[in-house]
Amino acid sequence: MLLQDLHNTASGRIYIVGNGPSLLSQNLDWLAGEQTFTCNRFSDWEGAFVPTYHMCSKSVVEKGLEPSDPPFQKYKFIGGYGDGAMDGWVYVRKRRSMPLSGLGDTMDHVRTKASQAFVMAQVALWMGYRDIRLMGVEQKGDGHVFDPEGSFIPFMPAPEGQVVYEWARLREYAEAGGATITDLTPDGMLAAVLPTESYENIYAR
């Protein structure tokens, strides 16, 4: 399966679920029946569910730091630089100094200067989702849901200023195309530039 083949094959809302420790305080059973997109080592967490989609980074999978066969329902994506497709994965070519993508008629690359969730949001737009909700996307690099104390963090997060700037740009890009990005992460860094809402309030309605 090629990324081009997935253009506008979906609609509605999708939950992009990061690996932040805030997930430990949220009832993810409510996501049953929802479209979900997880990433990296999410499946290492004992409370993990089987998502609709999953994404990893090619270089990290090749080093054995992320699972080569993560659970998923529809597609698993692998992001990398240049041409580097892998069997069984939908390949997403990443570039640091290129325009944002996801709302056009072609998608040769995704911009990557913030985080995996940032890449996933562009992929979600490409697939046709227009209501994107973030969970567990602290963007602080101080622990994961499967390692709340942060005892094993192999990679340094992008600088805070860069992360906030890139997400602000992505919000503007998405809204210009009729899409919304809402942060449901408690005490997340992105509350500075994204509209926020309480996950509990959504499911209390």
Q: Concise description?
A:
With 205 residues, the protein is an alpha/beta fold.
Overview of this protein structure:
It is a single chain. The protein has 205 residues and is α/β, with parallel strands linked by helices. 20% of the residues lie in helices and 18% in strands. It has four helices and eight strands, in the order βββαβββαβαβα. It has an eight-stranded parallel β-sheet with strand order 6-5-4-3-2-1-7-8. Helix 3 (160-176) links the parallel strand 7 and strand 8. The radius of gyration is 16 Å and the shape is globular. The relative contact order is 0.19.
Annotate the secondary structure layout:
Blueprint: E1 13-17, E2 36-39, E3 53-57, H1 58-62, E4 75-80, E5 90-95, E6 110-111, H2 116-127, E7 131-135, H3 160-176, E8 180-183, H4 199-204
Mean pLDDT: 88
Overall 3D shape: globular
User: Distance between termini?
Assistant: 38 Å
Rg from C-alpha positions?
16 Å
Order of helices and strands: EEEHEEEHEHEH
Question: Which percent band covers the strand fraction?
Answer: 15-25%
Strands side by side in the biggest sheet: 6-5-4-3-2-1-7-8
Q: How does the helix and strand content classify structurally?
A: alpha/beta
Number of extended strands = 8
Low-confidence stretches: none
Fraction in helix: 10-25%
Number of helices: 4
Largest beta-sheet characterization: 8 strands, parallel
Features:
eight-stranded parallel beta sheet, 205 residues, globular
